[in-house]
Records
---
Amino acid sequence: MSAVETVWNGRRVCYTPLASRVLVVAIEGGGGYWAAYVDAVNGENHELEWENVARHGTKLSREIAEIMFPEFAREFIWRP
């Protein structure tokens, strides 16, 4: 299982499974900000399930998000 990058509504997104039924998603926000979210999924099709995590997942702490997505931490400002 590896990270997948895509673009969603003009924003850079990266998602990766922690397990077959748990996804973490980093999403670029406006103004150079970013945040990351985690949630459970059915595990049937991550290509379709990550959007729900981006919309409704639990926001990760900055510390955990930076470990999961170091490239976002280098390129964007954390959204508190």
---
Amino acid sequence: MTQLISSDFFIPLNFQDVWSEMDTLDIAKVDNLPGVHPFFNASNFKVPNTILEILKDVGLIVSMRTTLLFQCKSLVNGPIHTDGYPPNFQRLTVLNWTWFGENTSMHWYTSTSEPTMRPYRDMNIPYFDHTNTEEIYSAQLVGCNLVNIKLPHQVRSNSSKTRYTLSVSFEENPTWEEASELFKKYVRLGP
């Protein structure tokens, strides 16, 4: 059996914090959305210019339709899900900037069953029943990370703070291997 390592799931990147570039009204809008893990896409908020420059440098274009701003409320577990599902469309990798994520963790799973599709806003979200999944990796993600989201995944909060994430996806929708290669010169070493 192959040994799973952190770089199979996420890679910390050395990009500056863009929190100060986030619009306070956009943060307030996501705070007012219903649900425990609410989000909306970038056609409803401004993507920081720093991010657009980063993507230009690596030859990628931001997907406004599938770039998301979301939150995970304190002491809540998000659903086990994927961001889309074959054969139609699935986000494979993203750049996530996470704020106030201390004491929250991301978990990746394998599943023995097909997901249940549930409508949320203008899309159907594939949800996986926890009784048919097996956790294969978990980590606390802070700062900017390249994240493999092809597998079912979930955020769990043990924090008293709301966790915010800007999840940037790309028009090109590169595989994990392709994205890892594109961002390899930006890997953050150490804490």
